[in-house]
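Please complete every field before forwarding. Incomplete forms are returned to the sender.

SECTION A: IDENTIFIERS
Entry label: holo-349
Bound molecule: zinc ion
Molecule representation: SMILES string

SECTION B: INPUTS
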Amino acid sequence: MYENESHYDSIVTIKFYSQPETVKSPKKIQTDRKKRNFLPLMTLIMLSAVYGCNNTNSSEVVKIEQTPAQKLPKTKVVTTFLPVYLFTKAVAGDVADVEILVKPGTEIHEYQGTPANVKAIATAKILVKNGLGLEEFLTDTIKNAENSQLIEIDASQGIQAINKSSPIDTTATGEHDHNHSSGNPHVWLDPVLAKQQVINIRNGLIAADTQNKVNYQANAAAYIQELDNLNQEFQQTIKKTPNCTFITFHDAFPYLAKRYQLKQVAVVEIPEKQLSPTDVQKVINTVKKYKVKALFSEPGLDNKLLTSISQDLGLTVRTLDSLETGDANPQYYFKAMKTNLETLATGCK
Ligand SMILES: [Zn+2]
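SECTION C: PREDICTED COMPLEX
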């Protein structure tokens, strides 16, 4: 169909990362602070003392008072950013305290660690990260935390990363590129790879906190079932619009595209300043060259420029959620991904 059958070609790169209005205001993470369970420690010891050689009537019962109720501290798990938090929280349920280091709405790709992050890691037993080079801030933050007991779980362990292979036609120079040393990190946006991440997290939690194994297994199984269902929904819906070609404005969907035989042919990053007529022309040319059916923006992105381009092209700009911001409820993953599926189906018609 196309000369280049690669699922992912970066054609035009126009920067937007320093645009402050693209950042949503942080939402507060509701960490479960349910009442801790108090294990009733009724210790009843019966002592029989027999006095005399043949006297059976002189036995007495000594009841030792119960010790004060003891708190069983929950295992403290810190996670890096929203998708990893959602998966970890789903597996941990209520048996571990799960925290998030990078609040939703904060740009993960450029994130710098804070003293609060150092403190959180210093007192944690387990750290769960996405991996694939996404969390560059961790290197220094972990070092500063000086927690030699810390157990790290890499959620992307064993996942084959997609690397950028196509040349990028950049319209801005000297700025930070949306590049990652270990390939594209957005694996959580493919339900099948998300399942692998949940399995990695489950196995890591069980290894680090064996006494809650049964809970981790059961919680993970339920979440994995939902991920399997989601994968089936994607397969069934997207096969109705095969080989749909789309442009995104954030390099977040190559795994999803590969999984469901979609084609992410270009990534256009919006600049801080207005697009020049040349930039606009490049986007238009790209859309025509690849017969692009859909333009996908993301939540929180200022769409004025996109709207004007799309009007010229006769295409509607729709929103795909990369889940780097959103709700802290593990079910948010399914809600957002089902919305993404509807958006893809509509855009690809
Ligand atoms: Zn991203």
